[in-house]
Design goal:
With 460 residues, the chain is of the alpha+beta class. The chain contains 14 helices and 15 strands. The chain starts with 5 loop residues before the first helix and ends in a 20-residue tail after the last helix.
């Protein structure tokens, strides 16, 4: 007898004999002659109801089955007499694999997200977090499918690097030096003693690698973990997050914006189609307007406007912001949310930011004040994508690196790509968790990643 997933049984058109499932007890109630056991195996949101007849040999044990216990059940899939479900299993065997004690923290009542974060190792067993992580899995698949269908090649960019793509200095050091050997020679670190013989850190972005491969394979993307030691205690930042980074040769900023918009719409439609049950849970318990919002975003054009126009709108709004806004200042989340939630009420793409607030690799515009950058902003979250057309002109790039005090020696290989066969190229980074937040309506990024890493928190 082969094990079946509950998700398949529930989709069955006809009854079946000799089915076998393995899962965990969600609830149990007894009637005179039967025990009704709700079992979930994680394959879908729904449980399957098991009818265990009191004539079963181990019925005394079955009637002690507690929430969280592991069971293996065989029997026949029959039409359910009860309401609310089409199928149930009339068990001929209930094997108790392990009995969960009363202290199991995941009893039937609803728990707060804050409490569940303290038991992050158990929270995927709840309906809500099961749904989050099934959607996370579907979304990962959809990303690969989106790119593969369009001829993009998947690149594995390194996790340990010697560069700081974003130049923000928010790096986690990687070293094998013992702490007492770390500071040497008049306070200066002797990296000669270290594993790589020079400074190394966890990557903040796979972009620089992706650029090298775009100039060889055409259209590429990376999808992997990235790390930032920013000490921001917000509901939208974690120290370890996943980023999707396409990079396209022979592509300008407009092509880049088109891809970003197409991709977000595709991913939303994919989840609306493939994760209906799980999404319904969020529409019911997290955000009543969720499906409407997602449908809207998937079917309407994103508003595109320049940073300069965005700043004008913000200044004219006369709204009191915590942070002042003026040309040359970065947009804060409050500004982004005002624009996308209140002013335009739809996703926005803001382009041409001042060069003083953006990294070295962005292409300098003819005004010499702005760069060909673009951010995609969505309601409730703010920035979900950051990207740009890249500076393909060797001279301009070198000058900018000098201005920013960057070492051309460290980036010699990056500059090489502008020496040999340099072309117009563009790309962006999509924050995978931020997209998941948007799709599920969940307001804290800690609740869409299995084991969140944030300042002072590395448990699990
Ligand atoms: O805007 P960012 O910093 O862009 C880059 O890293 C570029 N190198 C991408 C590229 O052009 N290939 O980051 C991209 C996205 C942000 O828009 C945001 O969604 C997400 O990554 N992000 C974070 N998500 C969670 N926690 C953090 N600390 C994040 N920092 C950025
Ligand atoms: Mg950004």
């Amino acid at each position: 007898m082969k094990r079946t997933k509950i998700v398949q049984l529930l989709q069955s058109e006809i009854p079946a004999t000799n089915v076998l499932i393995k899962g965990w007890v969600r609830t149990r109630r007894d009637s005179k002659d039967f025990s009704f056991i709700e079992v979930n195996d994680g394959s879908c949101l729904k449980n399957i109801q098991i009818l265990a007849d009191s004539s079963l040999r181990n019925y005394p044990d079955i009637s002690r089955l507690s929430t969280g216990s592991a069971v293996i059940i065989s029997g026949n899939l029959v039409e359910s007499m009860g309401v609310g479900q089409k199928w149930e299993i009339l068990a001929d065997r209930v094997e108790i694999v392990s009995l969960a004690p009363e202290s199991y923290p995941m009893q039937k009542k609803r728990h707060t997200d804050e409490f569940l974060r303290t038991i992050a190792h158990l929270r995927p067993r709840t309906n809500k977090y099961g749904a989050v992580f099934r959607i996370r899995s579907e979304l990962s698949y959809a990303i690969h499918k989106f790119f593969r269908d369009r001829g993009f090649k998947y690149i594995h960019s390194p996790i340990i690097t010697g560069s700081d793509c974003e130049g923000a200095g928010e790096l986690f050091r990687v070293t094998t030096l013992a702490p007492e050997n770390f500071l040497k020679k008049d306070g200066i670190t002797d990296y000669g003693q270290d594993f790589f013989g020079s400074e190394a850190n966890l990557t903040v972005s796979g972009q620089l690698s992706a650029e090298m491969f775009a100039l060889a394979l055409g259209d590429v993307y990376t999808f992997g973990p990235t790390f930032r030691a920013e000490n921001s205690h917000t509901s939208r930042h974690v120290a370890e997050f996943w980023m999707v980074e396409p990079e396209m040769a022979f592509c300008n900023l407009e092509g880049n914006m088109n891809l970003a918009e197409e991709m977000i719409k595709y991913l939303i439609n994919f989840i609306l189609e493939e994760s209906k049950d799980d999404l319904e849970l969020f529409a019911k318990f997290v955000d009543k307007n969720l499906i409407k919002t997602l449908d809207n975003v998937a079917s309407s054009d994103f508003k595109r406007l320049s940073y300069t126009s965005a700043v004008e709108i913000l200044k004219k709004s006369r709204k009191k912001f915590e942070y002042d806004i003026d040309f040359g200042k970065d947009l804060q989340t409050e500004h982004e949310r005002y624009l996308t939630e209140h002013h335009f009420k739809k996703p926005l793409i803001i382009f041409d930011y001042p060069k003083t607030i953006k990294p070295f690799y962005m292409r300098v515009n003819d005004d010499n004040k702005t760069v060909s950058a673009m951010d995609v902003l969505v309601p409730k979250i703010g920035e979900i994508i950051g990207g740009s057309q890249r500076e393909e002109r060797l001279g301009v790039l070198e000058k900018r690196m000098e201005e920013m005090g960057m070492s051309k020696d460290t980036y010699w290989w990056y500059l090489d790509s502008r020496r040999f066969g340099s072309v117009e190229h563009s790309g962006f980074g999509l924050g995978f968790e931020r997209l998941l937040m948007f799709i599920t309506g969940i307001s804290n990024i800690r609740d869409v990643i299995p084991f969140p890493r944030t300042p002072n928190s590395i448990e699990f």
